[in-house]
């Protein structure tokens, strides 16, 4: 079967949604690892700041040793410098994860638009394209925000916990419960937030749709003085949008309250417990308390805001945009593969010629003009017409050896003249002047089916009526001298080569003209029994009559039909039949 260099199919794109997002991110796992590594470096200040501050106070400033205190603060400054450098690299790594996502999403959206079930390809829906493009952009942007928010949340929280554990476990014990409670409550609220945001988006789209329709019909509405009725109709959509927005606003207000609780709760708890903790069982020093407070003030507060506002906000938009994309993009249909390269040269090989015109270079007058033809796998067609009318030219076009100036030629769904298509796997043309190579009989018969077993080649020779010739020549190993063969013998060798080839379409361009009528019949019947599509440029009436369909080229309007149909429809055909030869030697009228 023919092959193409690009074997990617559109159906390889999954539908836009979480699996696509996860697959796209999964493909960039190296960049994700890089991102994690740089995030760890970036969170060093979060892990060390409290510890360093405690040392600066206890071992430096409170002990009256300013130099030591300043040295510790200098170290803190250097650690922040390293963290800032790491931030630069995290941005680059985030870009290399998120940017390809846009291509993947657009690929999925376009595949869905082209191959989706129920897509009406005759009506370009530019509004939908714009909306979908906007949603793709939204998904890409929010994925970036989410990724960078999520990694800062996780790494900063872990770094802070580790730092607090090392510096003041008693403060950690007091501060951790409000943090965990805020996270649990936020997780419980998330479902409501998603539902309300989705409802708000849908209500917003409904308003845009109904208002757009009203504006588009404004002339008619004004002419019929029906503005009041239209306003009454659209008012329902506006009310639904207002209700959805209010419900969303209430959920967002609750989210704000949770943010404040998670941000300041740990700090307040630590400050309230401070008098008990200082000098307590684990000997909390003033420096350690200040260091612990700095952890809570400079790390926990931003981390909780990240969770509820950035992750909650961007995550919400991402979930809703992905769901909207999935809902608005129909499922690519796995059965609709006719446009994919896989379908090219499929087993159901057929011939399609659509409104083809062709002129040899230089001569302005077309040899063929307006030729249409459609053959199914297994069809047998004879092409007849006066000499010079263009029968061989049609054969060349079908075999991909010439390109039409206008119209389309497809064999097995592919353009046979496409250099990316393996033409010999698609179609085999045997011209009148049979071509025999200097080489063994095996080389000659197996030329188009390299590596085929001898049995296959011998069977081909026998079926086209060349078994006796093969025996006389000395079998498959015999070296053939083309000059020593008669025209008929050369045609038998060429016929066996075509028979043995894997091409599902065989074109015999007067390829049996030097054979006796009985041998011609035998060869043609062998090709019919071989399967596939057979096109015979016929020169004898019997040869044409054997075909299921006859195409008569007459220079003006090609006609196709059975022998009887053409007899009653065309004087030219009757004329050809009267001569016994369907190729008249008189010139084209
Ligand atoms: N390579 C070529 N360059 C220019 N003109 C050509 C070329 N080959 C064929 N022609 C012209 O194109 C026309 C159609 O030729 P074609 O061989 O297709 O006709 P045909 O019907 O097969 O004829 P025949 O039955 O005699 O083989 C003829 O006028 C021929 O002279």
TrEMBL record:
InterPro entries: AAA+_ATPase, ABC1_TM_dom, ABC1_TM_sf, ABC_transporter-like_ATP-bd, P-loop_NTPase, Type_1_exporter
Entry protein name: ATP-binding cassette subfamily C protein
Topological type in the membrane: Multi-pass membrane protein
Gene3D superfamilies per the UniProt record, alphabetical: ABC transporter type 1, transmembrane domain, P-loop containing nucleotide triphosphate hydrolases
Keyword Hydrolase: no
Pfam families with a match to the protein in the record: ABC_tran (PF00005)
SUPFAM superfamilies membership: ABC transporter transmembrane region, P-loop containing nucleoside triphosphate hydrolases
SMART domains linked to this entry: AAA
GO cellular component, as recorded: plasma membrane
Domain ABC transmembrane type-1 stretches: 35-296
Residues annotated as domain ABC transporter: 351-579
Chain ranges passing through the membrane: 35-57, 69-91, 150-168, 174-194
């Amino acid at each position: 079967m023919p092959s193409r260099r690009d074997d990617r199919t559109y159906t390889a794109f999954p539908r836009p949604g979480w699996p696509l997002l996860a697959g796209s991110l999964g493909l960039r796992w190296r960049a994700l690892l890089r991102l994690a590594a740089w995030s760890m470096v970036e969170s060093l200040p979060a892990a060390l700041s409290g510890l360093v501050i405690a040392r600066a106070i206890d071992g430096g400033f409170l002990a009256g040793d300013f130099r030591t205190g300043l040295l510790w603060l200098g170290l803190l400054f250097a650690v922040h410098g390293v963290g800032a450098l790491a931030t630069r690299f995290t941005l680059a790594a985030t870009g290399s994860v998120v940017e390809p996502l846009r291509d993947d999403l657009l690929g999925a959206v376009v595949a869905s638009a082209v191959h989706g079930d129920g897509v009406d390809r005759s009506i370009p829906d530019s509004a939908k394209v714009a909306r979908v493009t906007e949603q793709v952009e939204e998904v890409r942007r929010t994925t970036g925000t989410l990724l960078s928010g999520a990694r800062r949340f996780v790494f900063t929280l872990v770094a802070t916990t580790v730092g607090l554990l090392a510096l003041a476990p008693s403060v950690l014990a007091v501060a951790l419960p409000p943090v965990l409670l805020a996270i649990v409550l936020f997780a419980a609220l998330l479902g409501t937030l998603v539902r309300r945001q989705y409802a708000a988006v849908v209500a917003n789209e409904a308003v845009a749709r109904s208002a757009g329709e009203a504006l588009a019909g404004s002339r008619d509405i004004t002419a019929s003085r029906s503005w009041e009725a239209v306003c009454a109709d659209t008012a329902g959509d506006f009310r639904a949008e207002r209700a959805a927005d209010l419900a969303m606003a209430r959920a967002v207000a609750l989210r704000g309250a949770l943010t404040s609780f998670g941000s300041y709760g740990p700090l307040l708890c630590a400050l309230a417990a401070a008098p008990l903790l200082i000098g307590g069982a684990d000997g909390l020093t003033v420096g350690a308390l200040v260091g612990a407070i700095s952890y809570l003030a400079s790390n926990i507060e931003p981390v909780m805001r990240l969770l509820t506002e950035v992750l909650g906000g961007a995550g919400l938009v991402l979930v809703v945009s992905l769901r909207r994309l999935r809902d608005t993009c129909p499922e690519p249909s796995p059965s609709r593969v006719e446009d994919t390269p896989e379908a090219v040269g499929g087993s159901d090989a057929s011939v399609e010629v659509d409104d083809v015109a062709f002129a040899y270079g230089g001569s302005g007058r077309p040899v063929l003009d307006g030729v249409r033809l459609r053959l199914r796998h297994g069809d047998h067609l004879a092409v007849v017409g006066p000499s010079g009318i263009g029968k061989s030219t049609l054969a060349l076009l079908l075999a991909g050896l010439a390109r039409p100036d206008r119209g389309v030629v497809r064999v097995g769904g592919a353009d046979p003249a496409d250099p990316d298509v393996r033409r010999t796997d698609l179609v085999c043309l045997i011209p009148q002047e049979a071509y025999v190579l200097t080489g063994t009989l095996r080389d000659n018969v197996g030329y188009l089916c390299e590596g085929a077993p001898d049995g296959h080649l011998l069977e081909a020779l026998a079926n086209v009526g060349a078994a006796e010739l093969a025996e006389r020549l000395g079998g498959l190993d015999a070296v053939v001298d083309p000059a020593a063969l008669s025209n008929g013998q050369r045609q038998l060798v060429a016929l066996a080569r075509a028979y043995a080839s894997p091409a599902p379409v065989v074109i015999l361009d007067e390829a049996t003209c030097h054979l006796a009528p009985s041998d011609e019949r035998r060869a043609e019947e062998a090709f019919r029994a071989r399967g596939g599509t057979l096109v015979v440029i016929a020169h004898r009436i019997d040869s044409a009559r054997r075909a299921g369909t006859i195409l008569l080229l007459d220079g003006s309007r090609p006609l196709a039909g059975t022998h009887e149909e053409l007899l009653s429809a065309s004087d030219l055909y009757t004329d050809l039949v009267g001569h016994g030869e369907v190729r008249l030697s008189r010139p084209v009228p």
